[in-house]
Each structure stands twice: as C-alpha cells, then as structure tokens.
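$ fold --in a.seq
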Amino acid sequence: DALDEWLADPVVSTNLDPIAYWTGMQAAGHPLSSMALDFLSIPGTSTDVERSFSKGGLTVSRFRHSLSDESTRYLSVVGMWHKIPGIIPRDSVIALFNE
C-alpha cells in the first residue's frame, strides 16, 4: 500500500520543510499527501481551536440556525483566513458573490 511504499523510500534530507515536501508530493499526486498535510496543520495548542469555536457560536445564531454543516465550516474557515493579509483574493471573492 502507499504507506509501505513511502516507508521503503530512501530518507530525504532532514533540512527539508515538511509542509513544502508534502505540498510537492501532493502536486505529484502522492496518495498520502492530503493526510500528511492534514496532520501537519494540527495546531500545537488548543487556543486557536477554542477561539474558533467561540467565533463559530457567533456564526450560528438564532437567525442563522438552519445553515448546513458545510456552510458553517466554510464561513468559519473564511473568517479565520480573512485575518491573514493577502491570503484571500478580495476582488475574486467579490466577483464570485456578484455572479
């Protein structure tokens, strides 16, 4: 299976950024890349997670209680990304909403 094959591969340089490595592997279509990137993106502390849950409570209010799970997740993620300068192409998002 994919894990056994990856474990049998030669060891790569330890100076390599693991996220860059797995992003490259994802571009090459490696079957373990998505799982590895998910694992590497787990926060080291629960502070950000707790903050996300707190803000999620503001997203799902008595006026928006019928949002689907998927919509709630998207709103939470975009809300967190919005705070990182330049990560969301503002003009593209506005164009999508105007369609």
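$ fold --in b.seq
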Amino acid sequence: METLQQLLKNIELSTAQIFGALTVIPLVRSVTGSADYWTLDEAMAHNWVTITEVSEAGAVPELLCSNTSDRSVLLLDGEEVEGAKQNRIFNLTLLVPAHTNLNIPVSCVERGRWRYRSRTFKTAKHTYHASGRAKKIQQVTRALKQQGRPYADQHQIWAEVDEHLEVLECDSPTSAMADLYAQELPKLADYTAAFQAITNQVGAIFALNGQIWGLELFDFPSTFAQLLPKLLPSYALEVRGVPDPTPLAPQAVTDFLQNLSQADAETFPALAEGLDIRLSSPTVVGSALVAKERVIHVSAFPNTLATETY
C-alpha cells in the first residue's frame, strides 16, 4: 500500500502561478491509468448518487448517501451540499462504495434554517473556506481520538461562518455560507479564471500574500482538474485588503513538504473504504484517505490556521 511519504517523494514542483494575492504551486506526477471512482459532481450529473436527510425528522450531524453506481463515489472534505433542511459540509474525505447506502458525518453551514427546501441535496460550486477547513480537521481528529466518531465542533463552525459573513458584509437571512459565496464568487472570478490545471498536475500548494495556506493532493490528475474550480474559491475568499507583493519563499515550500512528510500519523478505519489518516506536527495539521492500495486525497494546513479563536 502506498504511503504518504512515498507519494510525496514522487511529487515534483512546477512553476508557481501567481495572480493578485494568491500563489498556486502545481504538484505534478506521472500517473498511469485513470480514476476508478466518480467525483460527487459526476455521480450526481448521472443520477447515480442521492444525498438526503437520514429521516423525515433529520439529524444535523448526519446525512444519507445512496450510491447506485458500479463505482465508488468520492466525497471531499469540506465539500458543500445544498438543500433539504439545511446546507451541510462533509467532515472528511471518504469513498462511498458501489451499491451502498451510507450515513455520512457532516456539519451545518446554514445556522438559521431547519425546514425542507427540497427532498434531496445538490452539490455546490465551492468548499468550506480554507481556514475553516484547517480548524475542522483538528476538531475531527480530536473527536476521533476522544469519541471514536468523526464529528466537528458545530458551534465553532457556525461562529466561523458568521465571522466571514460579517467581515465580508454579507446579509444572509439564514446565516448560510452559500449566500456568502453567491455574493463573493463574481468578485473572485478573476482569481478562479487565472489558474488552470496543467499536464500531470495532481495537487497544489496554495499561498496568500507570501504565506502558505494549504495543500491539496490527489491520486489522479483528472480528479484534481475536476475539483480545482471548487477549491480555488475557498482560498481566494480569504484574501483581505490590498495584495501583499511579498513572494513565497522556496524554502518555505520545502519546509512545509518536509514537515508534512514527517508529521505524526494516526490511523483510523474509514467509514467506508480504506483508512483515515490524521496528520499532526508542531507546524502542520492534515488528513489523508488511503484506499485501493494508494493515497486518494491529502489535505494539509499550517497549524497557525487551525487555532480556534471562538
């Protein structure tokens, strides 16, 4: 089975792409074959997967995912689904096996609604913002250690959403993260248009104003290319004020990757396929899904972003 250390050794850094305050460093790797799973967008486009409340009454921290396809479906940490009784985000990355109904752990990102808007959920065009995902990864890791369940701190997440709504002056009747993105995505269009996946790109390091804010790494270039448009806004949303011209230091990238490779790794059974790896060090917090004999997805953030302030 491929380890994170093996994966990182095989990654090469390509030329940094820069627009405004955001720097994206492509992570490339020569990969044979193609993904043997569907992304959520692919599966929903073909009506192969349905996500609903777990019951008529519903339960805030869980949703029901029904996969009728012949392949697993990849649900991404922080990916948002909208509809039903309130909008949610996935607490961790997981693969829902083929022909399986699975209760999945989620968090609410729409504090002011608990009523049906639709019977099923649809996918959003974004993920939870980067700093919030860093905190959530730490919360889920703590819950796995203490409770054996991948739950996040719901009140912290509501506070995070409220803070972003206030700072970006977004009036949302239901305190919904979706309203924030609906307001901000047109303003971020130049950012999202400026970055395109390159050949063999399987991931990226994202930096704002010369400081690393996160890493996303996948097993196949096709997966990264599909999910990059969702991930980019979650970093661009964090831009505040006038872009700082300070460049990202190459040594900072080297140190971040080395610290990630050397991070302590605790292994938990994934809810569906594979293993859920929780990563921690004095400088890095992250998670990884290992399944099908390989690393499917890695998310990692500086520990400074994971500090809870509420």
